[in-house]
Design brief:
About 25% of the residues lie in helices and about 35% in strands. The protein is of the alpha+beta class. Helix 1 packs antiparallel against helix 2. The chain is elongated, with a radius of gyration of 19 Å. The relative contact order is 0.14.
């Protein structure tokens, strides 16, 4: 389960959700934490008031806790603005892990071309990297 989906479902059930660097806190009134789910460790969750939990909230927390950390973040294709192939096909950021280099190409299955928000943020904030705010668009990848 993606983090965004977890947060939306918790909020749609009427609960409040807060996060720190390491955990999500789910509360019924903004003050009393009912449960926590780790952002860093798979299978790690805590129950503070188990008698106040609904089966739906408990199941949702367990489903999210079971999700591998690497599968929780949405991944994006990074389309480079102003660049395309002669047929109009967009060009995207790709990464070759064997040679450890980034390049621009179409979306093929040979190279990494799905990036998390954190990965994109680090690249954009690297002054020596060509990807800068305003020269790319993200498209959610499947």
């Amino acid at each position: 389960m993606k983090t965004k989906e977890f947060i939306e479902k918790v909020e749609s059930m009427g609960y409040k959700i807060y996060e720190t660097e390491y955990k999500f806190y789910v509360s019924d009134d903004g003050e009393r934490t009912l449960l926590t789910v780790s952002k860093c460790h798979q299978f790690k969750t805590g129950l503070d008031y188990p008698d106040q939990l609904t089966p739906e909230l408990f199941s949702l927390a367990v489903e999210y806790a079971k999700t591998p950390i690497s599968k929780r973040s949405a991944k994006y294709h990074v389309a480079i603005k102003g660049l395309s192939l002669s047929n109009g096909e967009r060009l995207y950021l790709n990464f070759d892990p064997i040679n450890s280099n980034y390049f621009v190409s179409n979306l093929n299955g040979y190279f990494k071309n799905k990036f998390t928000e954190d990965e994109i943020y680090k690249l954009v904030n690297d002054q020596d990297f060509f990807l800068q705010t305003g020269n790319y668009e993200t498209e959610e990848a499947e």
